[in-house]
Amino acid sequence: MDKYKKIILWSVIISPFAFLFILINLAASGFFGALPTFDQLENPQNNLATEIISEDGIVLGKYFFENRSRASYKDLPQSLIEALVATEDIRFENHSGIDARALLRAVFGAVTSNNAGGASTITQQLAKMLFTKKPASGINRVIQKLKEWVIAVELERQYTKQEIITMYLNRFDWVNNAVGIKSAAEVYFNKKTNELTTLESAMLVGMLKNPALYNPNRRPELTKKRRNVVLYQMKKYDFLSDSLYSNLSKEPISLTFKKASHTEGLAPYFREYLRGYLKEWCSKNKKIDGANYNLYTDGLQIYTTINSRLQQFAEEAVTTHISSLQQDFYKHWEGYTKAPYPEDFEWDQINMIIDQAMRRSERYRKLKKSGKSNSEIETAFRRKVPMKLFSWKGEIDTILSPRDSIRYNKYFIHSGMMSMDPISGHVKSYVGGINYKYFKYDHVKVGKRQVGSTFKPFLYSLAIQEGYSPCYEVSNVPVVFDKKRWGLEKDWAPKNSGNEFDELSLTLKFGLANSINTVTAYIMKQFGPHAVVDLARKIGIQSKILAVPSLCLGTFDLSVYEMVGAYSTFVNKGVWVEPIFITRIEDKNGVVLEEFTPKTQEAMSRETADIMVRMLQGVVDGVYSPAAGKTQGTGVRLRFKYGFENEIGGKTGTTQNQSDGYFMGITPNLVTGVWSGCEDRAAHFRTIQYGQGANMALPIFAEFMKRVYEDTLNTAIYPINFDISKSVYNKLDCGENIQGGVKTEYEEEF
What is the CATH number that goes with domain 416-745? Predict the structure, then answer.
């Protein structure tokens, strides 16, 4: 009888384990559904974000469905690993995927209603995240748990402990668009993973239990309590001393929150332009399996030419000047009922502008797509609704009709700015507008506006290339283009903005320094517009340009991108170099997929380029005219107002009615282009005093370069001299005696 009792007793003891063994084997065989293949275990499918990396190693932004980036084990701080193991799986190093002791503890706790901790190992949690879905019922959860065990054991066979920890931390979703430890460090603390402190590591590990519940943005006190639980576990297992635990647990939750967003952060306009380029690249390039690369899931590493410091300085410069200029604009139009449009504008013209903007809006497209009639759409645009508006003093919450919001936005002055290294072609900064969240139109690469006088240096370079001396004198008299000879509707004679130099003989270098239209017109008449168009193509200008005499005044539209590339030709000894944004593209494993080098083209001789550099310096330094008896230049405020003493060249530009203000600035190591103006050409300053390029655009260049030179240690951009051959100096010596010359500022009109 005792024998049978023993058999029964052992049967009772062994049968659950035997049953469990059978269930595990059934799960392993696929009885309860398919298990991941070996290949899936080796290559778990993660949606990895594509990262845009600056020249100086800063992640500018990402393209993603999930904001997931991969960190390597060497990137994980020891405090993070210790916090994770102490809290989630203290025997992680000693088990093979399943912790029998923890399992028995959990079973005992369930039987006795005394919860002493969970049984899931880090490996099991990884298995759950990677390969299973949320179960629909209790029995399905049991089956899922069996699969987790099988998968966990298989993971332990295929991966090292370090790899499992890395995979786990790379896979977890910390909410707030922070998937993976690398993204979590960036989003919550604006840090690289290896820079996380013990407190920060403990907070992130604490969130593993329930990231929505322990969201530090919503429940900082609850998050702190959970963080302190992690710290206690670290103390319990001797990762922290008692005193250090005591000190750390008193600290508040401290965040540097930076939610991943396509509309915020550095260089949003650049990132959006790059997105279009990269989507095209992905459509033309295939992975080993034959599928095209996916910008949002394949974890590409895009190494760009953008310097994060220079980008920050450029954005600050635009903000500093345009925010101040905007206030001047408001005051300038105060009391005018049709502002910011001229008083001679008819209301029908203004309404037409508003109607056109309405039809281009996203709201209009959505209403049209939903089947609304034109009258219904018009009514919707006149109905007041809650909305947010941009202002330089901060976002405005208000109730306004969409139509009135369009009129409100028409008041804003916009700007586009780009800087590049004239030798390498590397674009260092790219500011496409004043605020990407509210104004998404890119004024660097996409937008094109009349360039005005900034195009004049190319006509002068044509003259110099053909043998004209910078000292060659041109009489300041009207230059008439006969309608029959030049194919015009009527005779045309461009005018200067002022008449103080009438009938004086002025040198070419003085004419350029002061943007005198008659001198530029004289050059155009000597060589004709076709020669100018040919030169424009050599310096990288691809936009359509009509071969007409008015080219000499820059009456056509070009992008800031094209102009910066063109001006770099002067600094680069006559060789045009294509502005580029990317140096290389790597896959998620660091394999180089493509490297990028700029196109180059000889556009003019080195001597011509050197002469032009000196003549552009004259715009900033001022040029003395014996005939006029004074020293002048349209860019001299860079000296007397902003205090720059190093060698700088440049050219201002102002289009008709002050619709566009330009400044092109050159230094030996940076070429920068700036445009400023309203969205509509009809909206502008009424007077050239405010609307000229020297007031609208030049100050942005000044603010930018001031910041660059104040941070030479980090930017490695110093106020050095141009490398100009000595022979050029003689050609620029016109025998002027500048004694008694007075620097003044000239206001150009065109």
Answer: 3.40.710.10
